[in-house]
Amino acid sequence: MADRVLVIGSGGREHALAWKLAQSPHVKHVFVAPGNAGTADNGKISNSAVLVSNHTIVTQFCKDHNIGLVLVGQEALLAAGIVDDLRAAGVRCFGPSAKAAQLASNTTFAKAFLDRHGIPTARWKAFTNPQEACSTDFPARVVRARGPAARKEVTIATSKEEACRAVQEIMQDRMFGEMVVVEELLQGEELSCLCFTDGVTVASMPPAQAHKRLLDGDQGPNTGGMGAYCPVPQV
User: Fold this and answer.
1) What CA–CA distances, in Å, run from 58 to 69, 108, 147, 168, 206?
2) What is the rounded CA–CA span in Å between residue 230 and residue 221?
3) Which residues, in sequence order, are CB contacts of 127 under 8 Å at separation 6+?
4) Cα distance between residue 169 and residue 1, in whole Å
5) Which of 18, 30, 97, 144 pairs with 73 at a CA distance of 20 to 30 A?
6) Pairwise CA distance, residues 185 & 50, whole Å
7) From the CB of residue 208, how many other CB atoms can be counted at a distance below 10 Å?
């Protein structure tokens, strides 16, 4: 493990990564860019004001500060190819390439990938026309924006009217994109099982479950995540 590590992002996941990395005797210091209040001057952890959207500047920062490893948690930057650019410049980086990141950043790409490889997924259709998007006959619907905002702009609709309002908001009123994906709503428990792999060996993490809905009792609008717990007793 490198002496100096850079974690890119500002959310809870980056905070957790920095907190755990700082516990390693092999890590001298952890920079977090841009970081948050919890990662500011916290022992071996400190925030950095390096402009993360500019990959050239990030690369130079890594060379100037002898960064041995970069971990990228921010999804928009992964989709923008920051891992590709850092690796091309000789900076060791943990995170998916821009092409692989499409599985999280591009809903239509991900759904088509699942269909193409025979991986079970909810029925879905992509639309560029709001009127056509309102015509789906799924009994309950999940409406997603396509693009960087897609993971956050999700509406779980229990009626056709509610789904149409979400389509209108995404495609016309708030301009989150020119395309929406309407999916069949699958009822039941949802969990994540993440794995690390070097292309040969797979190491599985314990299953975890995230809190998506804003209010208690799984009520209120969907969010990007209100927290998570692990292990999951349902599995």
Assistant:
1) 12, 30, 24, 38, 33
2) 23
3) 133, 167, 179, 180, 181, 182
4) 47
5) 144
6) 41
7) 14
Identify the residue with better confidence: 220 or 203: 203
- Reported as half-sphere exposure (CB side, CA atoms, 13 A), residue 127 has a value of 22
pLDDT at 116 over 90: yes
List domains and CATH numbers for the chain. 3-97 (3.40.50.20), 106-184 (3.30.1490.20), 195-229 (no CATH)
Contact in structure between 103 and 124 (CB atoms under 8 Å): no
Bridge partner list, 127: 180
pLDDT at 177: 58
Q: How far apart are CA 126 and CA 148, in angstroms?
A: 16
Please give the average per-residue pLDDT across 102-117, as a whole number.
92
Residue 113 CB partners (closer than 8 Å, separation 6+): 103, 119
Q: Is the pLDDT of residue 149 over 50?
A: no
| 4 φψ region: left (φ > 0), alpha (ψ -120 to 50), beta (else) | beta
SS3 78: helix
Which helix (H) or strand (E) element contains residue 62?
helix 55-64
pLDDT given for residue 175 in this prediction: 52
Q: What is the pTM of this model?
A: 0.81
Give yes or no for a contact between 97 and 72, defined as CB atoms under 8 angstroms apart.
no
Asked if 222 and 156 count as a contact pair (C-beta separation under 8 A), the reply is: yes
3-state secondary structure of 73: coil
